[in-house]
Amino acid sequence: MLTYVSVALRATACIGTIVSMLFVQHAHAQLRFDNWHEEAELEAIYADFQRAEPSIVRIVDIGESERGLPIRAIKISDNVGNDEPDEGDVVFFGLMHAREWISMEMSLFLADHLIQNYRSDPAIRRYVDELEIWIVPVTNPDGFAFTQSDSPIPTSNRMPPRFWRKNQKRNDDGTVGVDLNRNWPSFWGRDSGSSAMPVADTYRGTEPFSEAETTSLVRFTDSLDNLKVLVSYHSFEPAWLRPWSFTDTRSTPGESILRAIALRSIEDIAAVNDTVYGDSLGDRGIASGETTDFYWASKRVAAFTPELGFGGFDPPEETIVPTVSENLPAALSLLRDAAERRIWIKDHPDDDGTEPSAVFVDGRWSRPFWQSPDISTVPETLEQGATVELNVRLRNDSDNAFSNVRVEFYYTDPRISVQFPNPDAIPIDTWEGTVPAGGRMVQVPWITPIGPNSWGERHWCVGVVIYHDTDLPLTTETRRTSNIASRNFYTTDAVATGTIMMIAATNFLDIDAELQYAVDEASLPPGWSAQLMLPANSNTGRAPQSSIERKGALLGATGPLLAAGETLAIPLRVSAPASAPRGASATVQVSGALIPLVAGIRVPVGNGFTYEVTKD
């Protein structure tokens, strides 16, 4: 039997009795992983973690189960007692399916590794200092307790409790249990990999978030200021899964980002024990109403489901150490993505690489993050159908050169909800090479579009996405990652005042949303005005008729309501004062956001437009 046990004792160099005091404070016996940990051990393990490094570890109750058991998170961060909104949040879930004990062991192993090595490993210290790391080893405490009981499974005289999967909800028909990984809203209710029959192992519940556990988990993640990545550990056979889970087709928006992370994770795992993980389970991996689909579809948060190890749901105990050890580097790589800025690009002139680069306050974005100063063209004035030089400045603040950097260039018609990459964006080119210390300029040719965009404007948005194995983007949203930037361009001269221009928004979320938009009037020259020519809410003044109207009324929505996939065009008129000479110009900034029609904290997604207007 393999064992993984050692004692790590740390002491600060000092003299006299102070030495022994510090020695005791930081003494922490590393957890053994040669046997499965029992439910009764967890409280002591959590207490030991916090006692070992109280400055970076805090145990937080984030909710409770259907039967009232606490769901506990291990928070690991510097200044652990305070919420630091400027730090990214990274979340790891374990044991959503009760029989998948290895997912809990992986969560405990990760927590133990971070705590053990915080003082000795500079990289781990950076991750802990720059992030708020949340590890929830058991998200299904009722189910876990049942797997360690002597109670027979209600629907079987043959199956021992060890193989129980669901929670312990008492269903209306007398059966027990809901599959918590089929109870999330995105694509819920489909029969692809979930069941409407309460007796089934994949029973999805009566509605999304019908369960105390999933409600607790989403309320917890909604409370986080800057969620960057979420991992939900499962088990059966080795695979690193990414959205979508409800289908086996690779139609996910931002698929190239998710795929890059998944393939790197598989390489990280293989480098330890030569274990080959797949990136799909085929038809067997289909699951509608699944956790990571929800986080990518509704929040554009990179989310993954590592299926750990071999041996099914009850692998031999001697496989625990190899399994958790080989999965550790993939988890650390995600922490590095979230914590460290390597190759990056500015979103706006004052951008210093902070993520996010803008926040939505009082109905508008705090910065025009769709106007990257690091993206430009030669010549500056664009003619339709001409080949121009697209220049992009790649920044590298480190003292090291980074090779094998990959940059993708796209263009699309600008929308309030534009993202890169997205299914509608048209590829311009791809560049691969080395970025030296201090950064470099990259040039690629771009044949500018001929004719108008989809709503009649000669107005385009160029997007740039940067990939490097040590720093991959974790979202398609420009403002939330320093790996992606965009800029608005025209293929004609600036439009004349009085012209009706159009802005547009597409609800790319898989849920209904409210649209909020505003003109930055403070940026206009004196006497100029800009008017968006659409009522704040076209449904105002009458009783709600449709389901989306009823949801909007319930949540106090004041802006237009967009169903999933719907596009709305909004007229904009800009006027100059009579005193302004002919040829006078103004820069008009319009910003907007989609606000999902969901209960709880409604996180905005979106961006804006920049128009150059001249008086004719």
Report on the architecture of this protein:
β27 and β28 form a beta hairpin. The chain starts with 6 loop residues before the first strand and ends with a strand. The strands form seven sheets. Strands 3, 4, 5, 6, 7, 8, 9 and 10 form an eight-stranded mixed sheet that branches. A five-stranded mixed sheet has the order 21-28-27-23-25. The chain is an alpha+beta fold and 616 residues long. It is globular and about 85 Å long. It has helices at 16-26, 42-52, 101-117, 122-130, 141-147, 212-222, 255-273, 291-299, 320-339, 547-554, and strands at 7-8, 28-29, 57-64, 70-76, 88-93, 131-136, 227-232, 234-235, 239-241, 302-308, 343-344, 360-361, 364-365, 375-378, 387-396, 402-412, 426-435, 440-447, 459-467, 484-490, 495-496, 500-506, 513-519, 529-532, 561-562, 567-575, 585-596, 605-614. 48% of the residues are buried.
How is the secondary structure organized here?
Blueprint: E1 7-8, H1 16-26, E2 28-29, H2 42-52, E3 57-64, E4 70-76, E5 88-93, H3 101-117, H4 122-130, E6 131-136, H5 141-147, H6 212-222, E7 227-232, E8 234-235, E9 239-241, H7 255-273, H8 291-299, E10 302-308, H9 320-339, E11 343-344, E12 360-361, E13 364-365, E14 375-378, E15 387-396, E16 402-412, E17 426-435, E18 440-447, E19 459-467, E20 484-490, E21 495-496, E22 500-506, E23 513-519, E24 529-532, H10 547-554, E25 561-562, E26 567-575, E27 585-596, E28 605-614
Parallel strand pairs: 5-6, 5-7, 7-10, 8-10, 21-28
Antiparallel strand pairs: 1-2, 3-4, 4-6, 9-10, 11-15, 12-13, 14-15, 15-18, 16-17, 16-19, 19-20, 22-26, 23-25, 23-27, 24-26, 27-28
Helix pairs in contact: 3-9, 4-9, 7-9
